[in-house]
Design a protein that fits this description.
10 helices; alpha+beta; 452 residues; 14 strands; globular; six-stranded mixed sheet
Length: 452
């Protein structure tokens, strides 16, 4: 089924702006309460809002694509040529994962749940397909587990304690920042029943153990986390972290702005490359569906290729080999990897970086768009062990749920980082208006930690 050409909510009087004015304040882009994109949202819950979107062709296309019945089976993994490359990972017996703390936190959560809630939250193992069943729109497509905004404050706190126990302090701050920003979006559009601090589901896979594989997922609008433990080893992914708008400008969290390092390091990198390497890295100056192939753009993902329902994607290496970069720009690639992976506890991140660095000579860097200070753009970093992509979503005729969006406006970004035999994504960037998203995922091939 061909993707739609727009998000389905285009109005003749929607605002436009030239590229040079792309960084206009997000409040200038919020549609009126009667705009079809948000009309009536104040009367909806998350399930009823999703049902209402099924009646509109373009979002109905997205909903169908994300439904459980369309999950890729069997899972093979994200590859460059359709073949899983063996032998690129070497997991240590002890990589410093906070398994003890996470198991204890889940135990405290289970202790405050009713018998029925324990049944709702529990899935047999990390091997089940539901472990991959995540999506990041506000559309509540595949219910299951516990929906936090339907739970008590005590349960909400216990679930967040599980996240805190799993991540670095910096990583959890990003996660909670996404929750706060989503709540701010609900405030802006008077849609707290759909968009709020707790618009997320929590699912538990397997029995929490210090030795056997188990994990959990936490997902909803612009925030999707999947975490797997096996002994003192862990993988986080798939995950998606986002912010719409890109900053909070009022209330107790005024000044909150996420993903600044992910934004600026990538732009500095491209701007500082020698001209011949800039040209080699650039796949296209145009960023819309008219400039890119049909399988490289749609009005919901735009240029982003590593999101939900891309588990078995085949994407060849493209762009400029990082081996040709000057030393400073190679360090920028490593800095981006660390920023995208900052949710990992320190010891685990050190090991992740060591593996990524070992394959830096096989890594490629590709770019779409221009690279002025206010330009939207897309890039990806692709190696045998990682696939990072960042998409500065500039829109095509109203991409988003809320922010008015035309091709000329720099409004949203998202990115991904996949470990090729695992399942990993990350990224994020935007300027002064619209949305920002950072996506990170990782998952072991066949869920076994070994030398392959």
């Amino acid at each position: 089924m061909a993707h739609p050409s727009s998000s389905g909510f285009v109005q003749a009087n929607d605002p436009t702006a030239p590229r040079t004015d792309a960084t206009i304040p997000f409040r200038d882009l919020i549609p009126s309460p009667t705009h079809p994109r948000i009309a009536g949202i104040e009367q909806h819950s998350a399930p009823s809002w999703c049902d209402s979107r099924r009646k509109i062709d373009a979002p109905a296309w997205l909903i169908k694509r994300l439904e459980a019945k369309n999950l890729e089976k069997p899972y093979r993994g994200f590859t460059a040529d359709g073949q899983v490359q063996e032998g690129v990972y070497d997991y240590l017996e002890d990589e410093g994962a906070p398994t003890d703390e996470a198991v204890a936190a889940v135990g405290r959560l289970l202790g405050v749940l009713s018998g029925e809630q324990r049944k709702e939250i529990a899935f047999e193992s990390v091997e089940v397909d539901d472990f991959r069943l995540w999506s990041n729109p506000e559309l509540y497509i595949n219910p299951g587990g516990l929906r936090l905004d339907e739970c008590s404050s005590e349960i909400q706190t216990r679930i967040h304690d599980v996240l805190k126990a799993s991540f670095s302090s910096e990583g959890y701050e990003k996660v909670y920042g996404c929750c706060i920003t989503n709540d701010f979006l609900g405030h802006l559009v008077n849609g707290k029943g759909v968009l709020n601090e707790h618009s997320y589901n929590f699912r538990l896979f397997g029995t929490p153990s210090l030795t056997q594989p188990w994990g959990y997922s936490f997902f909803g609008h612009h925030l999707c986390l999947t975490v797997l433990f096996s002994g003192k080893r862990m993988v986080i992914g798939p995950t998606f972290l986002g912010a719409e708008p890109d900053r909070v400008d009022e209330g107790p969290y005024k000044g909150l702005r996420l993903f600044q390092e992910e934004e600026m390091v990538s732009l500095r990198l491209m701007q500082s490359l020698p001209r011949e390497l800039q040209e080699k890295a650039t796949l296209s100056k145009g960023m819309d569906g008219k400039s890119l192939a049909g399988d490289r753009w749609n009005p919901f993902d735009e240029r982003h290729l590593g999101g939900a329902r891309q588990d078995n994607r085949v994407l060849p290496y493209e762009g400029c080999p990082v081996s040709e970069f000057p030393a400073e720009q190679k360090e920028d690639i490593l800095t981006l990897f660390k920023a995208f992976s900052s949710y990992y506890p320190e010891k685990v991140l050190e090991r992740r970086l060591e593996v990524f660095r070992a394959h830096l000579h096989e890594t490629y860097f590709a770019w779409i768009g221009s690279f002025g200070d206010q330009d939207p753009y897309y890039y990806r970093v692709h190696s045998p062990v990682a696939y990072m992509e960042l998409d500065f979503h500039c829109g095509s005729k109203l991409f988003g749920l809320v922010m008015d969006n035309k091709p000329e406006l720099s409004l949203r970004s998202s990115a991904s980082l996949r470990r090729r035999n695992l399942y990993m994504k990350a990224g994020g960037r935007t300027f002064y208006a619209g949305r920002l998203s950072i996506l990170t995922t990782e998952r072991p091939n066949l869920l076994h930690f070994d030398s392959t």
